[in-house]
Specification:
By secondary structure, this protein is α/β, with parallel strands linked by helices. Helices cover 37% and strands 21% of the residues. The structure holds adenosine-5'-triphosphate. This is ABC transporter ATP-binding protein.
Length: 252
């Protein structure tokens, strides 16, 4: 579904590489998280995949083809929800459909209403983002990302700004969505427990510049229950991951 081959990137204003000869791949229908300390370059990986940035060397393939020659191969949800405050929730969700083009107003309305029901916000089309709670805004932003129609979703710390209880319920909600639709999800988080609860595999950034991602499979079946997190092997995995992040903070 997604493959990075020997990707190198350096910000024009910097004299060091953020990514150096990085390769990894994600299979169709996988839920994969990337964890790493703040500033290590996780979001840069997303900006390269979604072509906000271009690699200095190497290539990025989606569905086996270079991304430069493709449209709408991924949906991107940035850290903050970035809903346009002057557009209603319905108008925000309509945006990817307007960009894609080719749909009548009534077709767009039907798709937006269907998605709002899907993300648990029926009847919210006419509200403005400022009238929604943080969790509702994130669900609306997720709906907008899903309406890109892309099978590959890049979610960059989508729940980091939410309070603990909302975050936990949003994690469960996201897993439900993923289990129903089986999009391929690449998810960035600082939160080791969140990565374990959601992912089939975790990719750990343990070097700067990022030269490789250490792959850690999560030994839990789907559907997941939060109680699974208290299994001894999962507690040990959490400690191992926290340790490798702590080491990176010290080295950084
Ligand atoms: N536009 C830019 N120009 C120069 N350097 C940048 C730019 N954007 C990011 N950087 C630097 O590149 C590095 C990686 O940034 P990036 O946003 O990818 O990190 P991150 O791992 O996603 O961080 P966080 O978890 O805090 O969001 C950081 O050192 C950052 O300062």
């Amino acid at each position: 579904m997604l493959e990075l081959r020997g990707v190198t990137y350096r910000y024009p204003s910097e004299d060091f590489d953020t990514l150096q000869n990085l390769s990894f791949s994600v299979k169709e229908g996988e839920f994969v998280s990337i964890i790493g300390v703040s500033g290590c370059g996780k979001s840069t990986i997303f900006r390269l995949i979604n072509r906000l940035l271009s690699p200095g060397a190497g290539e990025i393939l989606a569905g086996g083809h270079p991304v430069e020659r493709q449209k709408q191969y991924c949906g991107y949800m940035p850290q903050r929800d970035l809903l346009f405050p002057w557009r209603t929730v319905g108008e925000n969700l309509r945006l990817p459909l307007e960009i894609r083009g080719g749909l009548s107003r009534s077709e767009m309305r039907a798709q937006v209403e269907g998605m709002l029901a899907e993300v648990g916000l029926p009847g919210c089309a006419g509200k403005y983002p400022g009238e929604l709670s943080g969790g509702m805004r994130q669900r609306a932003a997720f709906g907008r990302t899903a309406l890109t129609g892309s099978k590959l979703l890049l979610l960059d710390e989508p729940f980091s700004a939410l309070d603990f209880l909302t975050r936990v319920s949003m994690q469960e909600w996201l897993l439900g969505q993923w289990q129903r639709h089986r999009q391929t999800v690449l998810f960035i988080t600082h939160d080791v427990e969140e990565a374990i609860f959601l992912s089939g595999r975790i990719l750990v950034v343990d070097s700067t510049p990022i030269r490789r991602l250490t792959e850690v499979p999560v030994p839990l079946p789907y559907p997941r229950e939060r109680t699974m997190l208290s299994r001894p092997e999962i507690a040990a995995l959490r400690e191992r991951l926290l340790d490798s992040l702590r080491k990176q903070v010290k080295e950084g």
